[in-house]
């Protein structure tokens, strides 16, 4: 088993401060804020308080979560959506982020993967109860009156979202939540066992635990289209592959402060450091190169679709435009959220620089902490290429 000392030595080689340099990422896709972004974010915070407050152990814990600005993820990823749909999407993303937060918390869902799996199975059952109309049910079935806190929130979201979905999309919504919760269970299991997977195995879990199925589905919902049939036929296989990998890898880079502090194992940064033995900076550089590869490959695959027969339909074009905003908006959110940079962090627009792993509140700096004002003869940035 890898000890804490081994982990620190392998992830943070050398005698310098606990930090790394994040190079500029391409950012080739559009970023837009919904015209009602502020109102949607605040209303979504209110929804979290009404529906999910009992999940938090104190008012301060709830406020800490709300200060992370998770309610802005929806308005950033669907800036074109009709306001009511954007609100529903914002609340869904808050819901799954609350779950994700407690998956990483070993005093909550993260304490026991078996208990978490049971809790998640109950949430899916509660969702299905809401699908059938809710209410008390006999015969051991769970209805709205017996649903868990998570289950009642899921039922509320189900009613609002499925009102604007086709039957196939409603089936996919339930399946996407089950996949997300399955990925969360696997993340808990891996962390408790101190198990680090290889790169591709990690990515397979992350596709579930990052919520890729509902990211794609809610992009359709925001655009008012149903891509169930072409998606099932593999029309979007290449754009989804590269687009979702870009999303996951950007998240792994920008969330590394949080994942490192919580000793989470299901992140490609740790995989490269532990499974492949790379120093931290080399792992970061490789992931940045992969981000660029997948972003450019996504754009190329998207353009091939747009120039082919499928691209002649307005529905496909609207969906692909939505994917552009999903990828660009998700990255924008991850630069600005205090969830990754510490409670009290305020984004100044910087997207590259030295980032501390141990400071309570971090920001991108022009120089490493160990060199500022002490070694002007040393370069402020790594001088080696990224690939």
UniProtKB/TrEMBL annotation:
Q: In this record, what's one Pfam family?
A: Terpene_syn_C_2
Kindly report, in one word, the top-level EC class recorded for this enzyme.
lyase
Q: Which Gene3D superfamilies match?
A: Farnesyl Diphosphate Synthase
List, in alphabetical order, the Gene Ontology terms for molecular function in this entry.
metal ion binding; terpene synthase activity
Q: Which InterPro entries match?
A: Isoprenoid_synthase_dom_sf, Terpene_cyclase-like_2
Family of the protein in this entry: Belongs to the terpene synthase family.
Q: What is this protein called?
A: Terpene synthase
Q: Which organism is it from?
A: Streptomyces aidingensis
């Amino acid at each position: 088993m890898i000890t804490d000392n081994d982990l620190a030595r392998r992830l943070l080689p050398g005698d310098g401060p606990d930090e790394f340099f994040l190079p500029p990422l391409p950012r080739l896709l559009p970023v837009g804020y919904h015209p009602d972004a502020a109102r949607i974010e605040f209303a979504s915070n209110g929804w979290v308080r009404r529906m999910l407050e009992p999940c938090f152990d104190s008012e301060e814990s709830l406020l800490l979560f709300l200060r992370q600005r998770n309610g802005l993820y929806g308005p950033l990823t669907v800036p074109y959506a009709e306001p009511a749909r954007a609100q529903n999407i914002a609340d869904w993303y808050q819901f799954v982020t609350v779950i994700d937060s407690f998956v990483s918390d070993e005093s909550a869902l993260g304490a026991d993967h078996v208990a978490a799996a049971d809790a998640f199975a109950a949430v899916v059952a509660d969702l299905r109860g809401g699908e059938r109309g809710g209410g008390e049910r006999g015969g051991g079935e769970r209805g709205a009156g017996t649903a868990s806190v998570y289950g009642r929130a899921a039922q509320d979201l189900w009613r609002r979202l499925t009102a604007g979905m086709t039957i196939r999309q409603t089936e996919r919504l339930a399946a996407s939540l089950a996949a997300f919760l399955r990925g969360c269970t696997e993340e808990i299991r891996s962390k408790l066992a101190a198990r680090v997977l290889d790169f591709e195995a990690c990515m397979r879990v992350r596709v579930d635990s990052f919520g890729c199925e509902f990211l794609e589905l809610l992009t359709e919902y925001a655009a008012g289209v149903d891509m169930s049939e072409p998606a099932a036929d593999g029309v979007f296989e290449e754009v989804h592959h590269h687009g979702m990998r870009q999303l996951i890898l950007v998240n792994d880079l920008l969330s590394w402060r949080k994942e490192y502090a919580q000793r989470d194992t299901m992140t490609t940064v740790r995989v490269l450091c532990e499974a492949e033995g790379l120093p931290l900076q080399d792992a970061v550089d490789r992931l940045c190169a992969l981000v660029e590869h997948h972003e450019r490959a996504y754009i190329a695959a998207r353009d091939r679709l747009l120039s082919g027969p499928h691209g002649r339909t307005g529905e496909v074009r609207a969906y692909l435009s939505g994917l552009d905003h999903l990828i660009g908006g998700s990255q924008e959110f991850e630069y600005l959220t205090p969830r990754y940079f510490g409670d009290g962090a305020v984004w100044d627009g910087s997207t590259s620089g030295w980032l501390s792993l141990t400071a309570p509140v971090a920001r991108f700096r022009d120089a490493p902490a160990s060199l500022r004002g002490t070694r002007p003869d040393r370069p402020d940035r790594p001088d080696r290429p990224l690939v």
